[in-house]
Amino acid sequence: MNALPALQNLELNDLLLDNADARHLLDELCYSNCHKLRTLRLVNVSKEPCPLMHVGIFVALRELWLSPVTIGDEVVVLLGSSKVRDLIIYQDKHSEEAPPVNRKSWKKCAGNNPELRVHLLIQGPSVRRDHIWQPGAPVASVIYETPTSRISPWGLMTVVENYSQTLRAFGHVGAPHFQSPKKFSERFDSMLVLLCRSCRQLETLVIRERVSTCTLLLMASSATSLRRFIVRRNAVVLRNDWPANPEWTPVFRQWLKRNSRSYERTEAEIGSGIGHVGWKMLPDVRFKAVKLDVRQL
Which PANTHER family would you find in this protein's record (predicted)? Predict the structure, then answer.
């Protein structure tokens, strides 16, 4: 790497080094490229938790990918003094065990670098665990790209409690390898509506698990900033299955009842609400092709 002084983008994946080697992985790069590197992707470079302090030295760095095992309090504080705009915390089967960063460190980082956006991304067919949550981080997106990840009430509540002021995107991408519950009482429709009501900056939402047309209408009417709403058509049941809410007016209750009885009316009302005339739920073929670039969310 010392022989590439003009290098601007570097990607190192799955090295799985011992900590002694991982700590010195970027020594030469810091010497030769500290003023030029703009994108750095370090995914699974160590086997065990090993914060890489070097990432705070690259003064031109704008985009940084790290596994949870290479982030620590000191690293986060350093990023507060950097020009990094997108920090993608990438998690897969090699990085499911790591401690979260202290809330105070994230708060200090966000205070010093208010333009920093953190993205929590899980990928891979073998991932079984949820995100390693980072309380206090300025999280802009929470994305699952794994067929085994389900909607979790605990996970949704964690998102609402920690990221309601910063979240711009949330979703599960790709075809699921599991069956969703059919009964309303066994699903988490109410938690999804809570997410939409609480996260006022939410612009992108991807839903692949079973929900009702009534739930979709409630989500779209609650998420005032929603502009990109991607829904898997085969998971949507035609039903007005919500219990009566005393906060609903008779007009709103009738609106839900009438439109949730038709897929076409549900789509038309959602399209009107999010400013996307002609909005449609996606068949499986098109839903499987959906890709989210967290840097553009």
Answer: F-BOX DOMAIN-CONTAINING PROTEIN, PTHR20872
CATH class of 9-296: alpha beta
Say if pTM beats, i.e. exceeds, 0.70.
yes
Nearest CA to 9 among 32, 37, 47? Answer: 37
Within 8 A by CB and 6+ apart from 283, the residues are 233, 234
37 Ramachandran zone, left/alpha/beta (phi>0; psi -120 to 50): beta
CA 102 to chain CA centroid, nearest Å = 20
Helix (H, G, I), strand (E, B) or coil at 19: helix
Domain ranges of the chain: 9-296
3-state SS class at 251: helix
Task: Write 146-149 long-range contacts (CB < 8 A, 24+).
Answer: 146/122, 146/174, 147/174, 147/175, 147/176, 147/177, 147/178, 148/176, 148/177, 148/178, 149/122
Task: Give the Cα separation of 197 and 223 in Å (integer).
Answer: 6
